[in-house]
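batch_manifest entry 22 of 60
target: Beta-xylosidase
source organism: Paenibacillus methanolicus
requested by: lab member K.T.
priority: normal
notes from requester: please return tokens only, no post-processing; we will run our own comparison against the previous entry in this batch. if the run fails, retry once and flag.
--- input ---
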Amino acid sequence: MPIRKWAVLLVAIVFTLGLLPVGTTYADGTTAKNPFIWADVPDVSVIRVNDAYYMSSTTMHMNPGVPIMKSKDLVNWEIVNYVYDILADRDKQTLSNGQNIYGQGSWASSLRYHNGKFYIAFASNDIGKTFIFQTTDIEKGSWEKYELAGGVYHDMSLLFDDDGRVYMVYGGGSIKVIELTEDATAIKPGGMNKTIIQNASAPGGTGGLGAEGSHIHKINGKYYIFNISWPSGGIRTELVHRADRIDGSYEGKIALKSGSQSNGAGVAQGGIVQTPEGKWYGMLFQDHGSVGRIPYLVPMTWSGDGWPVFGDVNDTGIPAELSRAWVSSDSFDQREKTIHAYHTVTASGENEDNGSNLARVWQWNHNPDNRHWSLTDRPGFLRLTTGRTSTSILNARNTLTQRTFGPESSGTIAIDVSHMKDGDYAGIAALQQNYGFVGVKMTGTSKSVVMVKGNSSSSSEASNIPLSQNVVYLRVENDFKNRTDKANFYYSLNGEQWASIGSTLQMSYTLPHFMGYRFALFNYATKTTGGYVDFDYFNLDDKLKGSNLDNSSVVALEAETAAVQGVIEGHAWSQTDGQATKAMRFGPDTGFAMTGTDAATLASGSKLSYKINVPAAGTYNVWLLAKSADYSGDSVHVGVDNAYRFTSNGIHGVSGGQFKWANISGTDGGIFGGAALTLTPGEHELNFWGREDGLSIDRIYLTTSSSTADPIWPPVEPQAPAVSLSAPSTVKPGASLAVSLSLDAMIQTVYAEDITLTYNADVFEYVSAIGANDKVQVAGEDSETAGQVRLIAANIGGVSGASTLALNVTFKVKAGVHDTTGTIAVTRAELGVTAAGTEIEAALSSKSIAVGSVDAVVDKTALTTAITNAQSLYDAAVVGTQPGQYPQSAKDALLVAINTAKAVKDNGNATQAEVDTAVTALSSAVNTFKAAVVKEASADVNQDGRYSIGDLALVANHYGKDAGSADWTTAKKADMNNDGKIDIVDLAFVATKILK
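--- output ---
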């Protein structure tokens, strides 16, 4: 299936420029609402330099670390740089030997600007040190790093005082100050070093979290220190203390104690900033469940006596519509280098720059190994190669992440898994300690789509679906509305039809990771290294789409179509008014009940019978659109083919005297006694015997779906088996055209297909067809008639399911054709299904393709596809002399042809004619290779059209000869097993054929 990279590029542009307003997150036409960043951006520290605002935040175990964000209006932010690339290179930072730095790394940075230089101070909890980084260009570096003596200074804040002295305020519970040198590179010997607020939590209440998260500002000659506290029984609370001297004494009060409209958790922790117009804002944040800790911009004024007064936490008061430049879709094109971070560790080996430049929205989980990822190995793709074995995604290296966001967000990938190895897992995850992912698992040479849930101690596979193609599409959807905090997982075989997989992940914000959920792209090995996958794109969306593919089988009936039989004690089924048309009622309603279920009792009762055609084997839930008079008239006996199956009771708990849908196979609403019906495909008779009078049935709906939602009526027509044709919408003049044929909505197993394609012969010419994998064999083709090709293929082992890629067909635009449109269509599709060889007709499809104008662009799509298919054929081929194996010389020749084609593909100066010639040459080499397969020898040695004793005599005549014999050219026809000698094995083979 061609991967449409242009679509994700468009989405990436949309996300970069700004999305349409969504819920309360976006502007209402006047002012931007909080949260202005509905994503994990905690411990914010903000400054203004001229007309630009800069903000740092915490990303702990993610690298590069300490993101620098920029804004012109305080509400729309983009990531412009990071402070460091990697900070240390020990086992903990590289997820080695069972160690990690989850929830550690750099915390709560302090960002300041003074005399033309930017300063970032932070503590690294895993290293146990505090650093100050400095630069004159915050967006482009370069950075200088300084380590402060004394270890970790918790939640510090820098202040450059008017007299040239430099201080750092820090601590938890009690707030301290320590003086730095004037250049802020070290602790000042003999400088100030003291506790300045003994119990900073006191204004907010007692107990709970001690005051921390200091932000110090000097305004109009006074020192203001903002902190967060979380008193027992209370919420996160913003405190402020002020003094005339930096070392006090300080007086304090509550600055803000408020949740938001969408979340009762307190908005607190942060500092303040002034606009060029003189307005003030607090930059704080709020704990918001599994999405993480999200920033709030709160308008602020000053009281008459000089205290800060925070306003409405729900409204920023800033006229703007919000964009999300801090996340982005990505088509993984190589970029100019835009991250100018400090690199602490010697750049060699795994830390050496590999020349690939990712977008700034991405961060690696822990330190990356730069030897095993690339944007240049396959241009336009992110390649992740396994460099070591791991036991789960939590200890796998080179997992690439970016933030999830609220209120809803989804991440979609297209991934090529053709080079995975046994034991590999690759895909996309919702990453936190309690994670979930949808991915591809390699078991031996077999692939499957899996959904996995896990945590730091265990994992489980919730679903496993066989996969027979190399490109698959995967999606994670996150619902953060109203703290729902649920993630669901989906897969698609064509990028258009999506099926859910596995079960819902209940996301939870855990302290060991101390970070909101991330989208995570991964590839890890559990057995052997060297396998790789290619991500074609990552596509973000702010809407949940769910599944658009329902493979459930359905039987739907209007109740009044029944055959009615029998009367018991004056009670029988008869027509009555239904919800829409007519219903069937068991009456009269006198309190009668027929409780027996033995064959004799049922035979004496009143029965509704329906002839049904079950589309597929399965377990069917029975739904009734039913109305009960009361609890003494709300049960019914159910059977199939006049054999009793179950009695359902308690329907009144759902109906309540009105026509309501009730799943009588389940237990919702107090229903009991029911069961699902296990049915075989084909014709059956569905039976209902009246049990309690007063029950009316309007509609009957049997479904294999486990959904608890009421059935949709009229029911959606089930998808008919179809052969779907996919091809690009446009093609260049003279170019080859890759067409894919998929078998869709296959309820039954398909073992063979006979497909006729028609096409505009004045626009296109047919080139070749090949199975999508080694299990699909093209057994015959007829292309003699211009504008038509007939393909006959066999599926070894059979295929079924929602959509399975079967055939890759190559066409070519005829010479001289341009600026026109042609059509390729499936005009006949006959499928051989089931082991019995039943034949069915499949629905058809077509595609109109525009041929563009003549230009110099060379289309290598068909060549790439041909190389991929040929490589798969080469990799699967076994060298040997047995039937089904290949001579070594044939395999060597195919490899030469593949490498020759690759050379043309990789040649940036190759012409379209050279590319097309390479496609034709490789196709010919593939056909030659297939023809070289070792076939079973014919025991008709004397070629008289039958197996007889004469054939055995000829073999016996050459018994004992081998490839070195002088007359081997004549004798080798008696070598039945192609082992280069004639022995008892050959005699036995001929004898066996004679006996048959």
